[in-house]
Amino acid sequence: MNTIGHLINNRPSRLDTNDRVAPVYNPATGAISKYVAMASRETVEEAISAAEAAYPAWRNTPPQKRAAIMFRFKELLEQNADRLAELVGEEHGKIGHDAKGELQRGIECVEYACYAPELLKGEHSKNVGPAIDCWSEFQPLGVVAGITPFNFPAMVPLWMYPMAIVCGNTFVLKPSERNPSSAMLVAELLYEAGLPEGVLNVVNGDKEAVDVLLSEPRIQAVSFVGSTPIAEYIYTTASAHGKRCQALGGAKNHAIVMPDADMDNAVNVLTGAAFGSSGERCMAISVAVTVGDSAADQLVAKMKERMQSLKVGAYTDDSNDFGPLITREHMEKVKGYIGSAAEQGATIVVDGRDVQVPGHEDGFFVGGTLIDQVTTAMTCYKEEIFGPVLVVVRVNSMEEAMQMIDDHEYGNGTCIFTRDGEAARYFSDNIKVGMVGINVPLPVPVAYHSFGGWKRSLFGDLHAYGPDAVRFYTKRKTITQRWPSSGVREGADFSFPA
Amino acid sequence: MNTIGHLINNRPSRLDTNDRVAPVYNPATGAISKYVAMASRETVEEAISAAEAAYPAWRNTPPQKRAAIMFRFKELLEQNADRLAELVGEEHGKIGHDAKGELQRGIECVEYACYAPELLKGEHSKNVGPAIDCWSEFQPLGVVAGITPFNFPAMVPLWMYPMAIVCGNTFVLKPSERNPSSAMLVAELLYEAGLPEGVLNVVNGDKEAVDVLLSEPRIQAVSFVGSTPIAEYIYTTASAHGKRCQALGGAKNHAIVMPDADMDNAVNVLTGAAFGSSGERCMAISVAVTVGDSAADQLVAKMKERMQSLKVGAYTDDSNDFGPLITREHMEKVKGYIGSAAEQGATIVVDGRDVQVPGHEDGFFVGGTLIDQVTTAMTCYKEEIFGPVLVVVRVNSMEEAMQMIDDHEYGNGTCIFTRDGEAARYFSDNIKVGMVGINVPLPVPVAYHSFGGWKRSLFGDLHAYGPDAVRFYTKRKTITQRWPSSGVREGADFSFPA
Amino acid sequence: MNTIGHLINNRPSRLDTNDRVAPVYNPATGAISKYVAMASRETVEEAISAAEAAYPAWRNTPPQKRAAIMFRFKELLEQNADRLAELVGEEHGKIGHDAKGELQRGIECVEYACYAPELLKGEHSKNVGPAIDCWSEFQPLGVVAGITPFNFPAMVPLWMYPMAIVCGNTFVLKPSERNPSSAMLVAELLYEAGLPEGVLNVVNGDKEAVDVLLSEPRIQAVSFVGSTPIAEYIYTTASAHGKRCQALGGAKNHAIVMPDADMDNAVNVLTGAAFGSSGERCMAISVAVTVGDSAADQLVAKMKERMQSLKVGAYTDDSNDFGPLITREHMEKVKGYIGSAAEQGATIVVDGRDVQVPGHEDGFFVGGTLIDQVTTAMTCYKEEIFGPVLVVVRVNSMEEAMQMIDDHEYGNGTCIFTRDGEAARYFSDNIKVGMVGINVPLPVPVAYHSFGGWKRSLFGDLHAYGPDAVRFYTKRKTITQRWPSSGVREGADFSFPA
Amino acid sequence: MNTIGHLINNRPSRLDTNDRVAPVYNPATGAISKYVAMASRETVEEAISAAEAAYPAWRNTPPQKRAAIMFRFKELLEQNADRLAELVGEEHGKIGHDAKGELQRGIECVEYACYAPELLKGEHSKNVGPAIDCWSEFQPLGVVAGITPFNFPAMVPLWMYPMAIVCGNTFVLKPSERNPSSAMLVAELLYEAGLPEGVLNVVNGDKEAVDVLLSEPRIQAVSFVGSTPIAEYIYTTASAHGKRCQALGGAKNHAIVMPDADMDNAVNVLTGAAFGSSGERCMAISVAVTVGDSAADQLVAKMKERMQSLKVGAYTDDSNDFGPLITREHMEKVKGYIGSAAEQGATIVVDGRDVQVPGHEDGFFVGGTLIDQVTTAMTCYKEEIFGPVLVVVRVNSMEEAMQMIDDHEYGNGTCIFTRDGEAARYFSDNIKVGMVGINVPLPVPVAYHSFGGWKRSLFGDLHAYGPDAVRFYTKRKTITQRWPSSGVREGADFSFPA
């Protein structure tokens, strides 16, 4: 069976004898499909050394030349979309249309990296004093690292290294060990686009590899996306080692449904937002907060009906709406949350625990689940389920709904369904959440804005991708310049340098 | 013999019965190679109508989608570089390496157009008053026009319409009637990249077509590059018809050679700057101002030697340095300037008037020419020659050199050769010229800055391409918003809209 | 009787023997209160010469030092608010609270000028090629001019010269000859704040002075605010003389009242927007477009009632809502418009023609006037009345209302009253007007945005004040720099220059 | 004897019974001049509560209104410059001209805070999808804290809270316990300028107070300036508590003196840079690196001569160049560094250890000291002395000099003295230091750029004051908006809400 190695200095499938291996599953069948190497300290250090060696020349490459590689990278990603979607489907389980959607969002981050010559412009001040000028440059950091999660195996790496690299840094990526293949292929395509050897390196691994990246003094910065406990560990550890760090964690995204909402529209878009990609998205809507019982009753009734047509199955059938969960353990955990809701007094309106996918009896499937009458005290409300489960909490006022959202530990995304300008403005202004949708259930910012939650959904000052990524992957240098006369201009040195 | 038509609504080679024709020459042979249609008023109006019809849908197309077409356009331009260089060579005469260099600068403007989602961001102010917000959008103008010169037949159109179009405008281009083929092919490639019908239209023609574009009320803006008298006419006429206009005109670009300059380097780069593309560049260096006789003597001696190896000939031989002039009339005019210099007392150090190009005896060739002891009173100093002629003016101080530059009617580009920080800073700060080089003889700004001269080299507020082009092709709209309470948020309207 | 002179080189009350004089009225009494000199060509040229002489030193003064004067200027304007309001009231007629409001908006433009060090930052690109840097500076133009209208005698000059001057230009102002005193005092305060002699100069005058400013070659740019026919003349003439120009003209600002609008709020704010400052504002709402007869009937009824309490009178009584018109001629013209409406079939709901102001029987007063059932064919709809007259046009759909606005020759400001997010967004996106209010009747952009209409309300590329003013009052210079090695760094020249 | 308390909710001189006290010295006399309260946990929590209570209203105050207070604050600071300089002199020891210089730099940061309406503009994107808009706002964080050092008691607090407050945050400041009085007065002036109660609070104290600020969950961010070990503790502790943090630490700023430098100019400006404020500046030049022995010999000779005229003494005499060190302990430490240099083989060229200041025999004075022949192995090179001591390290090449700088643990400021464009550009590009001077010995960025070192001179992503401070004191919120049709625009809801 195939074992996936690392990519160091553009040598694919490198394996160190110290590296352990871990299985990679096909979640639709429940079977192991391949193995992946778990990098030892030595392997990670070798990757860092490769990045370090590549840095000086890359740093001095004009940004426009760096961007030229990103233009070609974009073309190659588009040309290889089918292959990439297949790899994502096989190891993650998501359906082809969803995998391609993920890839498209990643490609848009590559497009943003193409803008580097504009984005890297510094600020120039003439005459800060008499004949004294001052300007600020945004210089690269050196070798930086990214650690990415299983749920967007192709996209999240593309949030990070295109911008890091186009800013002049060199990079070490550690993708999720659950589904490393698409990240490996994407990295190979960047080399095919013309990247010099060593500028990007991929190591597969687990905590051993991560801990090297967090402590190695040559790593200047770490970007992470994953769960909140790990994000907090990453941030605290990397910070204590003097590194710049941004660590994105978990979420519990609420949608407020106001009585004046266009209910058919709300139900329609919430279905995708709650169950798409089996709910394994940090921007998935997992809580619907209905204002007034009438809105609640309508929403639950229409949603229940809409969910009849949801189709769960393997990634190989593009007519499916969503696929399995990532592991058997995670499937059991999600089912446990549904069970706890029932035990704690909620009403299971649609129960996905016993979903059957013919031909894939051992796949890690949970069907779309709708739970009504949930309270903020219940486990299924307090914790991030990361499965195809939408809970409904009924409140009596918009203020009550907003207070609930603000009280939750997470602050990633949220949205409101309303037709009212004033309600929307009040909500978006005051809610303590980083990404807000107004009638947009998944308010993932476009690639030319930045992605980031508030509260315990993000540790760090700067958000991911977009303008904030430029600042994250560069440091400011400010130069103040005055030229004393050397007599050249006045002609005193006329004879020089004959 | 082939007759080139127009491109309206993506229908190539359209010809109207009213259109006249004009000959297109191969300047290397002196022979007519094809004909080109001269658009009548009706043809131009038809092009405008096509652009007008395409406008509403194009305006509402998200900028990112418009940029996606530019990404593909860039790929196609790169793939067709050889074909385009061949067309440029055949009709303009410039050598392949030079034609490809021109194309590359044009492609970089397409890359800048790809940044549209970033460039079109408006300014958003929260709480300009209590619960009042204000923001500015940069909206497209509508149908805009470009009129481009013979000397960069592939590049200058790409200064204009990629940015105009990506900003949401639709476009009518009138390229030079001397060498229209490359502009036609470039436009076809943009359609191949996915441009909707009618967004770009090309009409070939002369003053008849131009005057329609300047006066037709549906044209919102005009961009022009050419000579100063025409630029002034274009600007005044378009302005009087209420149109936004930027009109770039002629140049007389001086290089100051300071006594401390690295003379070998100066001679080397000045050779390309003065004679490249036969001097038919609005950024060509046509005057070397030497400070001190020692610098002058060195420069003239080294330049004379360097010019021995200059190779003039047809575009078909890539080892040539430069090719013929654009027309027989222009060749005679350039020779006349050289003759006038001799008559008015200057010293012809190297005389290119009798250059022989075997096998191309009827081509419009003038060889590289160096004229020393030129004064500001001579015709060859005062006027733009637009040929491979470098004149040397000797002065005794940098101040004298700068005064001379400031006194000239043109203010396009200039440069200084020095090793001295103070001299360079003083020069770049004070000189009344829009584009300044410090040891860079052709200070053409990169595509992510903007191109524009001062004084009578540019009429209009905003420069060409780069950030200024975004402002030129958009108009600011400022929105101030306050939402009165409708009771939705407070719950008063709970029953609505059941 | 006092005669107001000019302010050249900070010498107040200068008078040339060639200068004619014109009367200045107190519109509340109808009496001449003083005279003002009408500058001859010689006087204007003297002012230009003063500005020209002051330019070189001012241009080289660091922006932060220039801004320091603006900080002090702001303080002095605040300290002199009462004196200034008195002068505005006496010569313009507007009530104290209104005059102070005007002044406050002007002061906010001075505050914006204080930001100059930030606003003048150029764009700096490192490594546009190997070891080649490029940056753009925004340099001042030289001597620039402003020509300002009677209706905001204190504010509009402050739209112009604080920004022009803080950018490094020197200035010649020609204020309205109707009410020059406040502009004179404001200019004196700027000198009191520390402005060097000659940087600002004020000439009073009429067309003779204006024509000098439009044609004198030393004037680099002209800013104008006034009526459209004059704006067009200014723009065309200045452009033909090679000057940068922005000319703001007339307006006919429509407010759409949607059926879902908060009608009490709409009536309340429309009252101020229509009748404040007697309607002599280019942002006054002069047309209410009601969608549906129910909205129309409500609006007219409530507005009629609201207008009962409008108080018209002299500026000396701060409880008045608004004052007289500027001249007897203008008063008659406004009354003529009201009469024409009646003749052409409209319904005069409230008629202000016979308003009585006890003790001010000869003042130029017209009372608040409401006209219903107006059509687009009527004179009172087509032309700018510039008086306290609100006309109501009834339509049946929002599309009809928007088409009417787009068809009007002016495109200065507009607003919509609605509670609906979708209607507001559609309106603000599509309407062909430069400044848009959503439930904001006077959408004058705050000082840190820019002011400008579309269509025949503004001639030029760049709007007034705010970010656009920075671009209007500066020109871009782009510098490309490469340093050849002189051996200093490598140590070859160690002995130099001992 | 007077005891300085705290400033909570604008109640001056508040004292809690739990608070301890510490002495405040007059360093020029060596005597205790007053005492200062050391805040207990309860006192700090009370300050935080005051800030928390003030936050909601302040957050919703329009930025322009917040900036209006900063405009008045600037005026008051200027009016109170003498009083403030007196307080700084008395407690810190620096001479009046130096104290006023410090204050002026602080005032410039207040000026920058006045620009808030411009600086807080968000990014607005129209049509990120069909009729979908997206924009980013920069919202305040909440309650934030600043901890400031003794060496710039008036300026460093002004680096922090004006920007924090104008961005909408409320603030708790803990100034240095060595010299708290000027910070107290400055804070009182901000209240006099109109700050609402509780927006700024000052607590005096030591580690007990600091630790509350680092761990209290209501504190959202911490800014710190001090020594590197404390900065690292602050950063690690605050980060581990989930706070945003920027912590500025120590420095060892090198000046490279090239053989082509204007030596008289270099000596002149280095004198101020090395000995000004007794070297107690994190931007002081403490190492001169001479390239070539000729440059070294010249520099040492000229510097020795120049230092003869240095005048050390009490702050009360404005003709003094610099004053005492901050404490007796610090004075002894500085003398110890000088002694170690001698012991380790360096040459003490000028020895300030035995300086006599008549009438101030118990003051903490050390005179200007110059040490030649220093090596990188010596203690006086490796550690930050923070006294009036300049060491000279002799090297043979610029590369050697740069390697030395890059190898040092600190990377705050550096400069080069040269006349050569190429050397300057190479140095500023490659040196691993955050603030670079070219012939500018103290390259402290102006207030509209940002201040920050690299390596162990700054912990955190964003620099102090200027544009980076705006980002540090705000968090990004991104809103994506789509309006479903409610029928209002199309007229379906015509009857609503009659």
TrEMBL record, chains A, B, C, D:
Enzyme class: oxidoreductase
EC number(s) from the headed UniProt entry: 1.2.1.27
InterPro entries assigned to the protein according to its UniProt record, in alphabetical order: Ald_DH/histidinol_DH (IPR016161), Ald_DH_C (IPR016163), Ald_DH_CS_CYS (IPR016160), Ald_DH_N (IPR016162), Aldehyde_DH_dom (IPR015590), MeMal-semiAld_DH (IPR010061)
Record domain Aldehyde dehydrogenase: where: 20-479
Key words, A-Z: NAD, Oxidoreductase
Any Pfam family matching the protein: Aldedh
Protein name in the entry: methylmalonate-semialdehyde dehydrogenase (CoA acylating)
Species annotation: Marinobacterium maritimum
